[in-house]
Specification:
With 223 residues, the protein is mostly helical. Among the domains are: 65 residues; 65 residues. It is built from five helices and no strands. Helix 3 crosses helix 4. It is rod-shaped. It starts with 9 loop residues before the first helix and ends in a 5-residue tail after the last helix.
Length: 223
């Protein structure tokens, strides 16, 4: 009987060598299984914790959303109140502006009236000042004339003879004035002849030239 020789292929030998190198004991295998099971448990526990955390975060998100909605509602309400207040203030500002313009217009009108009145008073004051100056000038002229007349009277009455002469002249003038007045009243000829006693005495004084102005004034009212 012939014998057959079987030879192991090279790749199988290589696999055998590899298997020997990676050969694990039963103890190591159980340890690996336990480690794997423990890893699975840890993963499950972590997943459970993650789920719990997710639920908690979801709950917090819901609460936050509710709070945000509530806050948004309050903000909207406050915004409406602020808008209403702003409109109210704008309205009041417009009213105040109109009132200010009205008041400014009124004050401008009053200022124009006051300015016009001031100009009028200034004009009247200037006229009054001119009139006062004119009267003062006339008063000075009258004073100078009075002093001049006084000097004339003083010159005429320096001597007793002139005084006696003036007294006689005055008596004569008075008598003639009374006589002429009586004749005028009796005759009643015309209105032109009805001069008052003062005019008659003045005319007689001018005729005789014996009376000064002071004498005429002192005897104007004598009957």
């Amino acid at each position: 009987m012939s014998s057959v020789t079987y030879t192991t292929p090279a790749f199988l030998k290589a696999l055998g060598n590899l298997a020997k190198e990676n050969q694990v004991s039963n103890k190591e295998f159980k340890a690996k299984l336990a480690h794997k099971a423990n890893h699975v448990k840890q993963l499950q526990r972590q997943r459970k914790i993650a789920d719990q955390m997710d639920q908690e975060l979801t709950k917090l998100d819901k609460n936050a959303a509710k709070e945000q909605a509530k806050q948004d509602k309050m903000d909207a309400k406050q915004a409406k109140i602020a808008e209403k207040e702003a409109k109210k203030q704008t309205k009041q500002a417009n009213i105040a502006e109109k009132e200010a313009k009205k008041q400014a217009k009124k004050q401008a009108k009053q200022a124009k009236i006051a300015e016009k009145e001031a100009k009028k008073q200034t004009k009247q004051a200037n006229i009054a000042e001119k009139e006062a100056k004119k009267q003062a000038k006339q008063a000075k002229i009258a004073e100078k004339e009075a002093k001049k007349q006084a000097r004339v009277v003083t010159t005429d009455t320096d001597s007793d003879e002139n005084v006696e002469h003036n007294d006689v002249a005055v008596k004569t003038v008075v008598k003639k004035a009374a006589k002429q007045t009586k004749q005028s009243n009796e005759s009643k000829e015309s209105k032109a002849k009805k001069n008052d006693r003062a005019d008659i005495i003045r005319s007689l004084c001018e005729e005789f030239g014996a009376c000064s102005d002071d004498i005429r004034e002192n005897h104007t009212g004598v009957v």
